Amino acid sequence: MADSSAWSPDSWRSKPAAQDVVYPDREKLANVLSKIRTLPPLVSPSEIERLRHQLGQVQRNQAFLIHAGDCAESFDACTQENIAAKIGLILSFSLIVVWGARKPVVRIGRIAGQYAKPRSSATEKIGDREVLSFRGDNVNGLDPDDRTPDPDRMLSAYFHSTATLNHVRSLLTSGFASLHHPQDWSLAHVRSPAVREEFERITEGLSDALEFTRTIGIGKETVSYEQGGGRGALGEVDFYTSHEGLMLEFEEAMTREFPIPSSLGAHSSSSPQSSPTKVHYNTSAHFLWIGDRTRQLTGAHVEYFRGIRNPIGVKVGPSMKADELVRLLDIVNPNRESGKVTLITRYGAGKVEDNLPGHIRAVQQSGHPVIWISDPMHGNTLTSSSGLKTRNFGTIISELTACLRIHAECDSHLNGVSLEFTGELAEDGFSVTECLGGSMRLSEDQLPLRYQSFCDPRLNFEQSLDVAFLISDHFKKERKGGGRTYGDVLYSELGGRKLAEK
What we know:
This protein has an 8-stranded parallel barrel, surrounded by 4 helices. It has a two-stranded antiparallel ribbon with strand order 3-4. It is globular, with a radius of gyration of 22 Å. The chain has helices at residues 26-38, 45-59, 80-101, 152-172, 193-215, 248-253, 300-305, 322-332, 352-366, 393-409, 461-479, 489-493, and strands spanning 64-69, 105-110, 123-126, 129-132, 240-244, 255-259, 278-282, 287-290, 312-316, 341-345, 371-374, 381-383, 389-391, 416-420. 34% of the residues lie in helices and 13% in strands. β10 (341-345), α9 and β11 form a beta-alpha-beta unit. The chain is α/β, with parallel strands linked by helices. The two termini are 39 Å apart.
């Protein structure tokens, strides 16, 4: 049943909050939050509504969603080079998917606000010391001597998010998107001849198509952007920001009441003479999600999320019961609005078969409109023999392709993918080394070479494009009536698990 009780940006305070941060200096906290409430929004209602519309297309299988970026951002990584590398990778990834799927891609970055991280324990042991767990740069410091939660870090998070978003906007409005084309992608890292042949076939076809469009005048401006010309069809893309809505005090401070844009017609007011309908937008990001650790039906996070107009995501893991999922949807989307809720499944390759079909059937029977995307990262983390957290590329693509297959078998569609990846380069100019395998066949003894994550391991540039090629190839075969991706040469050469005989 939907929750019919009154909602306000602070009504979550009457509920128990998982992953709550305890600030010793409450007066300082109050002062910081008061300051944040006066700061300008980072995103606008019109941008949020545009994303809602595009996610409606994703829900109807008319577009594909790419949700990607860092596990957790750091203040130190807020640099021109790192931001450009992240955006460039998302653009390259989406271009490959567009080529195979022949449908638009909606791009949502885990960027400009993804600073907090949930923890399984409030404390951790470092040597012979027990200290508070590191909760992200917007809470406390990575240094064991800097673990006391500091409200000023929320203010720093606001300004680092502002700087990041400002640079993202400047990149995407000055021709940056048109630079990320197949001729710039090196395949020198690909060890397998079979994989290299598949990748070359895709990149050659994509390059030919782009060259053809330029030849007939599409995407080729006679006057450059810098000289007053337009950005062109290939140079302008929509890009949206997101983060996990973990820090509810910050989210409340960034929640503002605005009228629904008048262009939305029937949604804006009941009659031309009445006042515009006002709703609450979280203006810290276009899209926010509830984590697997904070989705309790009677908890503070679900209470907060049910009242904001932003499109939201919900992480769905193996501990989520089917009836619980439906009840959660009743709470956060009682009016069953299109494009409102994205279900981000994260089971682990060994558990997806046991959980996804039941979740799909329960949602189908409920009649709730949802977007289904796969997070094949979080359920597949392991610890290497050297003690580094890592993930195996073969396991990642096994979960992803299992989701594609199961959705097809259940008369459903996988509408997108959620990945933790990075385009950053280490100081020596090479990609980071945090996940095993992929076409570069990264081995365990190579992990320490350029391991840079202070949170979870991320796919590097080459491994990320491996996933993009796999998805693109799947959709191309599906369009042409060919076989599915799972079980073919590209899948097996990249380390995917063999399907069990039925």
